[in-house]
Design a protein that fits this description.
The strands form 4 sheets. This protein has an 8-stranded antiparallel β-barrel. Strands 12, 13, 14, 15 and 16 form a 5-stranded antiparallel β-sheet that branches. The protein has 6 helices and 19 strands. The longest helix is centred in the middle third of the chain and has 24 residues. The N terminus is likely disordered. By secondary structure, it is of the alpha+beta class.
Length: 364
């Protein structure tokens, strides 16, 4: 089953820190706890301090919050129970970390410079702290696979185990290069999200983070990313799916509005007020009309009082659907309120290629 999402794991990890932590400037430190190397990010808001740190051996984020009194910082992790008593001396921080088992370790931190040995193709929006997460890491090539006469190779990041493919043949070289760069960026983003989600027991909070087998058409490539997680600090476990689709003639990643739009005028700029209005007033009702044409039984409104009835005829559940491409056409994933999450993203909600109004030669 498909589920809809954006960068769901990274968003879930933000629940570990109060909003003030993201409003205040972030200070980066590197140094040691005992003999172990760490990187720490701290934000101060008046007498409060928030942040996170990770050990370079594991790289999973550990939350921090506490108080600042003069040069002294007292911090604690809600996840691990570790407590830090640090004193600022010029630009450095020195002190002690006391583990939940009462083990005392010396701490020595200095301002972190720019991270070194960064991999290529990192997403542009990663923060300096997130880039430190990825320093020195690289992908390991794995097995090849042939799909529709085209060859892909899988790559794995060993520390997180995150895997994603690259395309080795079957398309024009310029488009191949552009798409493979985009795939590498997507993979590093998912590795970064994996590090940002620590579980309640201090280990990885991500249960599943993996790509389904991609679809490789004549003009398009599409894949779906599945994830489930239970990050410490979040209210409950969750799961989602994000789709990525590319035009293999240009190498450009596609938006849903490129393939499906309603009305005579151009689609408003994404994330503008006009775009949100378009999605609710024109796009969603248009999707409902199309799905009723191709899936009339599934789009029938549930009888009044029907327990656990999924009303796919409600335009609101189609405002911002997940989506992916396949041999059959365009799959759209409805998104329901949490009380009806079982209704999310049914497998049947596919619009055939003929419904998209594409010009000859634009189909797979």
């Amino acid at each position: 089953m498909y589920r809809t999402s954006t960068r769901f794991l990274a968003a879930a990890a933000l629940a570990l820190a109060p909003a003030a932590a993201w409003a205040a400037p972030e200070q980066l430190y590197q140094g040691t706890v005992g003999t172990a190397r760490i990187v720490m990010a701290l934000s101060e808001d008046k007498a409060e301090v928030f942040g996170q740190y990770f050990y370079l051996t594991k790289r999973l984020d550990i939350d921090l919050s506490g108080s600042l009194r003069g040069p002294t910082l007292d911090l604690e992790s809600r996840v691990t129970g570790d407590k830090l008593h640090l004193t600022r001396s010029g630009a450095t921080l020195v002190g002690t970390l006391i583990t939940a088992k009462a083990r005392r370790l010396p701490v020595s931190l200095r301002p972190a410079g720019a991270p070194q040995a960064l991999p290529a193709d990192l997403p542009a929006k990663l923060s300096a702290y997130e880039r430190w997460h990825l320093t020195g890491l690289q992908f390991t090539p794995q097995q090849t696979e042939t799909i529709n006469g085209r060859t892909i190779r899988w790559y794995r990041e060993p520390m997180s185990g995150i895997r994603l493919f690259r395309i080795e043949s079957g398309y024009a070289a310029p488009a191949l290069a552009a798409v493979n760069h985009a795939l590498a960026r997507n993979q590093w983003q998912d590795v970064s999200a994996w590090f940002a989600c620590i579980g309640y027991e201090g280990g990885p909070g991500t249960d599943v983070s993996e790509a389904q087998k991609p679809w490789l058409g004549a003009n398009h490539v599409s894949y779906v990313w599945n994830a489930s997680w239970s990050c410490a600090g979040t209210a409950h476990p969750d799961f989602a799916t994000a789709g990525h689709s590319f035009d293999m003639r240009t190498g450009r990643e596609l938006r849903l509005d490129d393939l499906l739009h309603f009305g005579a005028g151009p689609v408003p700029a994404e994330d503008s007020d006009a775009w949100y209005s378009y999605r609710s007033k024109r796009f969603a009702p248009g999707v409902v009309a199309l799905l009723k044409r191709y899936h009339p039984a599934e789009m029938t409104k549930p009888a009044e009082g029907e327990e656990d009835g999924c009303d796919y005829s409600d335009p609101e559940v189609w405002d911002f659907p997940g989506w992916a491409l396949s041999e059959k056409g365009l799959w759209l994933g409805a998104y329901f309120a949490r009380v009806q999450r079982a209704c999310d993203a049914p497998d049947w909600s596919i619009l055939p290629w003929s419904a998209l109004g594409l010009k000859p030669g634009e189909r797979p």
